Amino acid sequence: MPLSHREISPIETKVNGRQNVLEKRGKQVEFRRSGDLEEALTSLAELGDKAQVLAGGTDVMIQLERGEIFPETLVHIERVEGMRDIAENGRLTLGALATHIDLAQSPVLCDRYKSVAHAASLIGGWQTQAVGTIGGNVCNASPAADLLPPLLVHGTNVLLVSKDRGEREVSLADFVVGRRTIAREPDELVTGFSLDLSDGRTADVYKKVGRRGAMEVAIVGLAIRLSVDQAGTINDARIAVCSVAPVPFRAQAAEQALLGTKANGKETGSAAALLLEQVEPIDDVRATANYRRMVLPRIFESAVADCYLLAAKDLS
Amino acid sequence: MNLASTSTLVNGRSVTIIGDGATTLLDFLRDSLGLRGTKEGCSEGECGACTVLVDGRPVDSCLYPALAAEGRIIETIEGMDEGSHLSSIQAALVATGGIQCGFCTPGFVMTLTALLQKQPNPNRNEIVSALAGNLCRCTGYSQIVEAAVSLSELEEES
Fold it and tell me: What are the residue boundaries of the structural domains of chain A, listed by start?
């Protein structure tokens, strides 16, 4: 029997795919293509909060299916030109449509923004990384969003634009205001992210704890960025965590505790204690709050040790 | 009505996609085109049973909007055979016993096809890493990984 695939006879086909879901939802969702930024902004200005921006779809399509969101229109931006670039121009700019694979394989990120590249490589499997975008990961604002801790330690600003009010830049810490809540106005589009330069004796690390090595939502995620002076003393320390509070955040008290030190065990231990004071973990299907409190100091200490070695590698 | 239509290539054939924004590529392939080789497992991007190739990239078709496929090249398991022969990865899965119930197999074939197109001689780590998004509850993965290893010309380090 030949193995050739079956004939697809009718070229015109009827829609019966998600009929049951369509019935449950009561109405259909418009799909609006955006060929360029102008079109996307015009759609958002017209539709406001009736629109849901859609790029790779890996979060939006699940939420649509589950009935967690009820947009009238999906504004599809996946093909907007010029929003996928990774470029250095005083700061580092990441286009909102850069996919997780783009980030994980970018030479500049793998060289000097390792925490970003590494976190992107841990988001879902190849199927998710191929189409999922940094803009989507940030705007979905999950408490467990892998990219938020690394972006927070790099002093990231979110770049937004709207048809009527033009461009706006807001710090990521001010942009993610709550669990799955962001400070984007309904007519605005996130076009990219602007990160502090990372050069000289600066290094960064992302550590993630999950139940298995891949396809995991973080039980705890932690990013750290350290800079050291000629003597190997830490003169800039930045720490951010996810999955231990409703919103990923920078742990300033712990950062202060590392300043002026060479990250020895005692000082790192004190910083870990300060970090623990700031977290509000919960019990969920992945882990208990208690486990999260137990594991956080461990990955913090190993992240500090790894990051310090990388930052100070040219000294010795 | 918010139905829209657009055209795309599925296994080399030009087809018209009609759907609303929530119609997934998986629904379109299975229910509109009758291409039931692509399986629906979890419907939320965890299991990879619905993997198809979109412009050569493995994508969970349960999460990909059908209308986003406009003008793209879609490949499904039905397009994998080479005339009357199995593709090399299909034949390797048969040879190593990488199939039991078969439900996950189309997804594995698609992901491994994408891997071998990108990297004809992958090492074991690259194979395991590429397969992270495909779940199999029968084989324990070893035979599936062996199938891909058997196609790679890399010398195996013992």
Answer: 28-76, 86-195, 212-311
In whole angstroms, give the CA distance from residue A73 to residue B48: 27
Residue appearing with tokens 């196609």: B151
CA distance A46 to chain B (A): 17
Partners of residue B16 on adjacent β-strands: B7
Assigned superfamily of B4-79: Beta-grasp domain (3.10.20.30)
In the sheet with B51-54, reading across from the earlier edge strand, the strands are B13-19, B4-10, B73-75, B51-54, B57-60
Residue A20 contacts B, CB cutoff 8 Å: no
How far is Cα A121 from Cα A105, in angstroms, rounded to an integer? 9
Domain topology for A212-311: Enolase-like; domain 1 (3.30.390)
Phi, psi of A245 (to 5 degrees): -165, 165
Structure pTM?
0.92
A197-228 residue pLDDT tens? 998 899 999 999 998 888 889 999 999 999 99
Least CB–CB distance from B46: residue in A15, A17, A215: A215
